[in-house]
Design the sequence.
C-alpha cells in the first residue's frame, strides 16, 4: 500500500466498515442479525495501512466516528449533548482510538520479511492496543460518568474492565483476522498477475 490510490481505497473501505457497523443497522436491513461494531479494528487497520497519512487520516476517522454517534443518538430523538454516553469521558475516545491506530502503525513500521515474526508482532500489538483502548474508554466512562456509575469503586471498575475486555478483543481480532486474510489474498492475486521474468520462445 505505497501509492496514493491504494491508500485512498483502503481509507474508504475502512471508513465504510466502521460507519456501517457503528450505525447498528437493524436486522431487517442486514439480514444477518446484529453486526458487531468494527470501530476498534478499523482504527488498528487504519494505523497499519495509513501510517503515512496519520496526521489527517486519524482526525478524519475520529470525526466520522463522532458523526455516526450523533446520527444514531439523534435518530432516536435524543439530544446528542445530553445523552449519558456523551459525558466528559466521551472525549477520551480520542486517545483510546489513537492507541489502536498507533498499534497498527507500529506493526507496519517494524514488520519484517519473516511472516511468522510479523504475525506475532501483530497479535501482540493488537492485544496491547485493545487493552490500552479499553482502559482509556471504559476507565474514563466508569470513573467520570456519574449518571451511569453513581458509586464507583476500584473493585467495580476492575470487574467491569475484565468482563468486557475479552469480548472487545474477540471482535477486534475477528475483523483484523479477516483483514489479514484479505491482505494475503490480494498479495497472491497480484503476484500471480505479474508476468514471469522469463518468457518462453
Sequence:
Amino acid at each position: 500500500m505505497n501509492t496514493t490510490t491504494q491508500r485512498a481505497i483502503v481509507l474508504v473501505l475502512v471508513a465504510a466498515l466502521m460507519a456501517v457497523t457503528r450505525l447498528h443497522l437493524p436486522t431487517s436491513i442486514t439480514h444477518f442479525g446484529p453486526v458487531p461494531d468494527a470501530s476498534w479494528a478499523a482504527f488498528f487497520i487504519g494505523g497499519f495501512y495509513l501510517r503515512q497519512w496519520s496526521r489527517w487520516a486519524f482526525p478524519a476517522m475520529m470525526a466520522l466516528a463522532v458523526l455516526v454517534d450523533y446520527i444514531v443518538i439523534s435518530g432516536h430523538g435524543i439530544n446528542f449533548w445530553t445523552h449519558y454516553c456523551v459525558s466528559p469521558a466521551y472525549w477520551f475516545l480520542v486517545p483510546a482510538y489513537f492507541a489502536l491506530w498507533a498499534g497498527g502503525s507500529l506493526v507496519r513500521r517494524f514488520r519484517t520479511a519473516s511472516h511468522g515474526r510479523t504475525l506475532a508482532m501483530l497479535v501482540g500489538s493488537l492485544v496491547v492496543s485493545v487493552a490500552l483502548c479499553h482502559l482509556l474508554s471504559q476507565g474514563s466512562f466508569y470513573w467520570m460518568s456519574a449518571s451511569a456509575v453513581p458509586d464507583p469503586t476500584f473493585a467495580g471498575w476492575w470487574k467491569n474492565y475484565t468482563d468486557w475486555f475479552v469480548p472487545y478483543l474477540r471482535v477486534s481480532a475477528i475483523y483484523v483476522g479477516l483483514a489479514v486474510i484479505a491482505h494475503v489474498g490480494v498479495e497472491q492475486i497480484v503476484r500471480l498477475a505479474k508476468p514471469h521474468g522469463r518468457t518462453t520462445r
Remarks:
- The longest helix spans residues 154-193.
- The chain has a mean pLDDT of 88.
